[in-house]
Amino acid sequence: MAEPAQDTGSVAERLAAEALIVDVEGFEGPLDLLLVLSRSQKVDLRQISILALARQYLAFVDRARKLRIELAADYLVMAAWLAFLKSRLLLPPDPTEQGPSGEEMAAHLAFQLERLAAMRDVAARLMARDRKGRDFFARGIPEDMTVHRTVAWTASLLDLMQGYARIRTRDDFRPFVMDRKNLMTMEQALDRMRPMIGFAGIWTDISSYLPDGWDGDPSRRRSATAATFAASLELAKEGRIEIRQGDSFAPIEIRRKERARD
Amino acid sequence: MTDPQDDPQSALLFEVPTEAEQERMVEAILFASAEPVTLAELTSRLPEGCAPAAALEALRARYAGRGVVLVRVGEAWAFRSAPDLGHLMRAETVETRKLSRAAIETLAIVAYHQPVTRAEIEEIRGVSVSRGTVDQLMEMGWIRLGRRRMTPGRPVTFVVTSEFLDHFGLETARDLPGLKELRAAGLLDSRPPPEDGAEDGAGDPGQDQMFGN
Amino acid sequence: MTDPQDDPQSALLFEVPTEAEQERMVEAILFASAEPVTLAELTSRLPEGCAPAAALEALRARYAGRGVVLVRVGEAWAFRSAPDLGHLMRAETVETRKLSRAAIETLAIVAYHQPVTRAEIEEIRGVSVSRGTVDQLMEMGWIRLGRRRMTPGRPVTFVVTSEFLDHFGLETARDLPGLKELRAAGLLDSRPPPEDGAEDGAGDPGQDQMFGN
Q: Do A118 and B185 count as a contact with CB atoms less than 8 A apart?
């Protein structure tokens, strides 16, 4: 039985509508309301009359207004859209008008309703499945399966000894300080040799120029030898002496250089 | 018994366990864990050279019809008590928080339409999705963020988790009830509303929001 | 099968499950229960007329030699992974990391100078010793608290443990090479400072301090 006009419903219909109004808080939005209203058509959603549905919805909104029930904006927006849809469906198509036809709009609304109904259906089927913690259960006494990530700190005996050695010898790495006590400079050697070379008419081992007290201790001897040799080179450069060495590692000898008058 | 370590040829330090032994090992590991164990994790826990896939098949057959059954959850495997014996488990039943209608529908939409954006969920339901609904489902571990959609605004998407599959006893998301029928009926297509230039001019800001444009 | 209940009215509401079915039920209950289940509890949870003792025996036999075994825990029953497979559960990844320089030095000082107070360690290292370093060494079980020093403040002292000796393959801390040996081994490559040459030459003050008392 199609609904001829919005105000000529049966008493039962009116009661149902009022029940809906009382229940308006319970709707999950206008699409939900449309879906509920569509059920009163008692046909498959695919065959539903969108025009009739639009009328039902508008009637519902109208009644809600009369009862001074405030509807959320969503519902009013839908009402405006449905009123527009209704006019498009009823009036012959105006070729100058742009946008989708009333049929296209109605088809899309039907699709939305069918889709929402389908999602509700599968949601119910999903929730009715055997569920973990209700129908089937996991192991009640799970065993410790955690992967224990332990950090094993290691050190070798060598690390330990090196570490200790490092601490005990840390003081050795002080800024370099000249050990003056055991060091002879080239200047000192030059000062010592200048007065002496005038007497060096014959080849003499430079080691004999080392001062007393510098030929015993190896480090003092090393320093004095180096300084004396460097001083000898300096004197040779000045043209005061000549240097020779018979062979590798043989004693280095020097003698006074004869002046040009020779 | 030859010591394999004496054999310089032997690449493996230990002999590969027999198939029966591998089955025992997989059985023990899966039994020990309350959570599904992935094939990769099984492999990593088993001695070198083991092939857990064969052991899983053998176990699945062995436990078929028993009080405890081997189930697949996505890429993972778990033992679960047989669903038909749930009535004996009142003591173990965990009272799950009652989900609101909005949450149930949102969950179903995510499951059947994944990956799905919030705007798409709203278009399907015809109402806005409250933050709390999404949060609750995320908190329960049933949905999670998927990849961002490569559309303007790069909206986030939602997908269901393996915990969801586990909870509802699904091997994969393809096993969702009625999925094929929905797809065949075109109800999972994303079908944009017809271009509505005319009444857009009339200016219904709510409309755009509601129907996802 | 006799009706266990005397009341003639109560023909059992349900048929007594078959033995195989009872075994399944017991299997499922034991699997899902968070605690071992007693025979009495099994009886109360199973449908009327069931005899869980027989089911337990059947299960015990069924699981014998499997990866999971049915064990008795006091008066109760539970599944446990087979003892020989325990190593599969306890997957342990041990990440070996070298001790920090600060920790090694602190450890070395304790080893060479034990018992040694924190202040002494700091004096020898020339820098303060962080609480974390000492804690780490204590946690590793390589050093422990020794006796309090009988000096003002009664500071705690640290000594090395037998675990430390084990790790480094030492019989006693006295086996640690002295400075001279370290030098001979090329570990102390720098010459001793001339100033404390005498002291050093006399042989390693640390050692003296350590073993002198």
A: yes
Q: Which residue has the tokens 């007290």?
A: A213
Q: What is the pLDDT of residue C201?
A: 35
DSSP code string of A162-186: HHHHHHHTGGGGSPP---GGG---H
Number of H helices, E strands in chain B: 10, 6
Phi, psi of C18 (to 5 degrees): -65, 165
pLDDT in tens, C12-63: 566 888 889 999 999 999 999 988 999 999 999 998 888 899 999 999 999 9
Q: Provide the pLDDT for residue A20.
A: 56
Percent of chain C with pLDDT over 90: 24
What DSSP state is assigned to residue A250?
A: S
* Whole-prediction pTM: 0.59
Contacts of A163 in chain C (CB under 8 A): 101, 104-105, 107-108
Distance CA B23, CA B59 (A): 7
Instruction: List all residues of chain B from 72 to 111 with a beta carbon under 8 Å from chain C.
Output: 79, 81-82, 85, 88-89, 91-92
Q: What tens digit of pLDDT does each residue of A206-243 get?
A: 888 888 888 778 888 888 888 888 888 888 888 888 88
Q: Give all chains having 3 or more CB-to-CB distances under 8 Å with chain C.
A: A, B
- Phi–psi pair at A259, nearest 5 degrees: -70, 170
> Which among A159, A177, A161 is positioned nearest to A169, based on CA atoms?
A161
Calculate how close chain B gets to A162, using CA atoms only, in Å: 36
Residues C78-88 pLDDT 10s = 999 898 888 88
> Which chain C residues in 138-157 lie under 8 Å from chain B, judged by CB atoms?
none
Q: Which long-range contacts (CB under 8 A, 24 or more apart) does A56-65 make?
A: A56/A3, A56/A6, A57/A30, A57/A33, A57/A82, A58/A6, A58/A82, A58/A83, A58/A86, A59/A6, A59/A7, A59/A9, A59/A17, A60/A17, A60/A20, A60/A21, A60/A33, A62/A6, A63/A17, A63/A18, A63/A21, A64/A21, A64/A24
Termini Cα distance of chain C: 86
Query: What interface predicted TM-score (ipTM) does this complex get?
Result: 0.63
Three-state SS across chain C? CCCCCCCCCCCCCCCCCCHHHHHHHHHHHHHHCCCCEEHHHHHHHCCCCCCHHHHHHHHHHHHCCCCEEEEEECCEEEEEECHHHHHHHCCEEEEEEECCHHHHHHHHHHHHHCCEEHHHHHHHHCCCCCHHHHHHHHHCCCEEECCCCCCCCCCCEEEECHHHHHHHCCCCHHHCCCHHHHHHCCCCCCCCCHHHHHHHHCCCHHHHHHHHC
Residues present in chain A in total: 262
